[in-house]
Amino acid sequence: MPALATLPDAHGHFGPYGGMFVPETLMAALQELTAEYERARRDLSFQQELDELLRNFAGRPTPLYFAERLTNELSGAKIYLKREDLLHTGAHKINNALGQILLARRMGKQRIIAETGAGQHGVATATVAARFGCECVIYMGAVDMERQALNVARMRFLGARVVAVTAGQATLKEAINEAMRDWVTNVRTTHYILGSALGSHPYPMMVRDFQRVIGVEARAQILEREERLPDLLIACVGGGSNAIGLFHPFLEDEAVRMIGVEAGGEGIRSGKHAARFQGGRLGVLQGTRTFVLTNDDGQIELTHSISAGLDYAAIGPEHSYLRDSGRIEYDYATDEEALRAFRTLAEVEGIIPALETAHAMAQVIKTAPTLSKDKLVLVNCSGRGDKDVATAAAHFGI
Ligand SMILES: *Cc1c(COP(=O)(O)O)cnc(C)c1O
User: Fold this and answer.
1) What is the distance between the alpha carbons of residues 141 and 138, in angstroms, rounded to a whole number?
2) Active-site residue, selected from the candidate residues 78, 93, 109, 387
């Protein structure tokens, strides 16, 4: 096995996964972006500017919080939460959006586009576009616009134009298609801020690198608090950016176990889910080769999750590689389990998590009681749940 931390190769391959499966017209833009990113990551002034924004605009470092009551209630391993939900705009997405808008400025691109599912990436992008005075267009599935109305209003107040996408399932996949179409047409003036560790090279690598700050901080914080590394890391996996951001700085620490949690929807047998590692297969979707939910003809399957941010047919290519290598385990939580965990965290810890995050919490609730009290579990609290309160209230009849 090659040193995991050195991947991908120069063409964006994580073993057999990843790559650049895009129309000819986008190759020049992706190569320009790759070159600019390579320069920026070595440029001290870029790093300083990003650090300053992460600190004073976004609110880093985020706390590592000991969830004492949840720990007592589950009566197993000691549970720590990495509080990405406390960041400006309410989720980890701002880490990546800030990194990418600085790159857009270096490339002289004044127009910003993005896709969004739950709306958290759209809000983060609209926020950084406002901060730097850029024009901003967000593509969002019409179904997602309905279930995430709060975030649609936030984006509009931030000055973004939100374009409803009605094609197909009218969720994240179709929104990405529209954003790619816009990018092909306007590539000279426009930067596409992709929101997860997905798509063509260099996005999976670059988004991972911008999210690594989560794991770098968490590693230092747990060492300070407990004077040792955690035994288990847990994070939910949509495209996979909050998970890889937490996991990556621990990959070389062999004793640290990691579990990525996908959306089990209404259960795997129902077919209504978005758990790519439960029945998905090798395919190419939106720029990258990875595990994809397809039917026997290779057509993309419809997906389902209560959580718009996890409702996508492909998983980031690095996760496919890390699963093959056995370094990371992947499990899933159903809608029902996530909704229950959403309530538990609210009632026991006073934290209302995003429904995406609630999938990670459901895994904690399953796993922590099976571990002894001297074990440490560190879970990424990727976002806060304001946007999901209406969905949960409708479900529970509150
Ligand atoms: C977008 C989102 C996710 C899923 O995206 P990843 O790229 O897999 O992290 C998870 N949690 C929250 C709060 C989100 O907003």
Assistant:
1) 10
2) 93
Contact 82, 64 (CB under 8 A): yes
Mean pLDDT of 278-289: 95
pLDDT tens string 177-198? 999 999 999 999 999 999 999 9
pLDDT in tens, 344-353: 999 999 999 9
Burial class from Cβ neighbours inside 10 Å (0-12, 13-18, 19+) for residue 382 reads buried
Tens-place pLDDT, residues 258-269: 999 999 999 999
* Residue 238 phi, psi (nearest 5): -90, -100
Residue 246 tokens, joined: 């937490």
* Identified catalytic residue from 84, 115, 174, 262: 115
H or E element in which residue 323 lies: helix 317-324
Q: Given strand 17-21, what is the order of strands in its sheet?
A: 13-14, 17-21, 287-292, 281-285
Measured CA to CA, the distance from residue 182 to residue 176 in angstroms comes to 10
pLDDT at 298 over 90: no
Q: Is residue 382 annotated as a catalytic residue, yes or no?
A: yes
H helices within 77-169, ranges in order? 93-106, 120-131, 142-147, 149-157
Write the pLDDT tens digit of every residue in 96-130: 999 999 999 999 999 999 999 989 999 999 999 99
Distance from residue 91's CA to the centre of ligand 1 (Å)? 8
Question: From ligand 1's centre to the CA of 362, what distance in Å?
Answer: 15
- Quick one: DSSP state of residue 188? T
Task: Determine the number of helices (DSSP H) and then strands (DSSP E) in the chain.
Answer: 15, 14
